[in-house]
Design brief:
alpha+beta; Glutaredoxin; Glutathione S-transferase Yfyf (Class Pi), Chain A, domain 2; 4 strands; Glutathione S-transferase N-terminal domain-containing protein; Glutathione-S-Trfase_C-like; Glutathione_S-Trfase_N
């Protein structure tokens, strides 16, 4: 196993347990995908807070691991072939952890691809669109006099929720009876949309009964409850 000190990120965030997977994150809708997955799988890991208030995500040390300057990112000392693996992008991290542990990703080729398609749906649609709604409802965008940009993203968020609601009809999870990384990828974003962003009324969330029930099921899972608070905010 290569010494993790060889990785510049450990200069700013030293590993107290270098034999464990290192998580660099904050409990945002993207960040909690990794922490929920780690809690669900039971993999030993060490967490490091990336403080946005200190602009940690744009330091040379963090960007040595993720040149895109976004959380979450991981450093696994026991990657493929026993070699260390540095990895960024929450969707890629979910896929990697699922393959590493053999959990939350079906082995059947068709169901595996169906799971991945929903993860891509979240990455390309749910995350970006819900995040834009948040900007226009919770942050600086709320002060824009022209509401057309806000309404555009609200309309797209409603459309995506409609797609999700239809897919969840008669199902507990996106893959039916199987809880997978597809669900893990979306729980934080839907929770954030109606909770932190306070946009539930704006998008008519109560009208998406299947999504609402799915969210309640997901939030009832103990590992999800833990993962949503990891790491603790500074």
């Amino acid at each position: 196993m290569t010494d993790l000190a060889d990785f510049p990120i450990t200069q700013r965030w030293p590993a107290q347990h270098p034999d464990r997977l290192q998580l660099y994150s904050l409990p945002t809708p993207n960040g909690v995908k990794a922490s929920i997955m780690l809690e669900e799988t039971g993999l030993p890991y060490e967490v490091h807070v990336v403080d946005f208030g200190k602009d940690d995500q744009h330091t040379p040390e963090f960007e040595s691991l993720n040149p895109n300057g976004k959380i979450p990112a991981i450093l696994d000392p026991n990657g493929p072939g026993g070699k260390p693996l540095a990895l960024f992008e929450s969707g890629a991290i979910l896929l990697y952890l699922a393959e590493k542990t053999g959990k939350f990703l079906p082995t059947d080729p068709i169901r595996r691809l169906q799971t991945i398609q929903w993860v891509m749906f979240q990455m390309g649609g749910v995350g970006p669109m819900f995040g834009q709604v948040g900007f226009f409802v919770k942050f600086a965008g709320k002060d824009f006099e022209d509401k057309r940009p806000r309404d555009r993203y609200v309309g797209e968020a409603k459309r995506l929720l409609g797609v999700m609601d239809k897919a969840l009809a008669g199902r507990d999870w996106f893959l039916g009876d199987d809880y997978t990384i597809a669900d893990i990828s979306m729980l934080g974003w839907v929770r954030g949309l109606v909770g932190f962003y306070e946009a539930g009324d704006l998008v008519g969330f109560d009208g998406f009964a299947n999504v609402k029930a799915w969210l309640e099921r997901g939030l009832a899972r103990p590992a999800v409850q833990r993962g949503l608070t990891i790491p603790a905010r500074p």
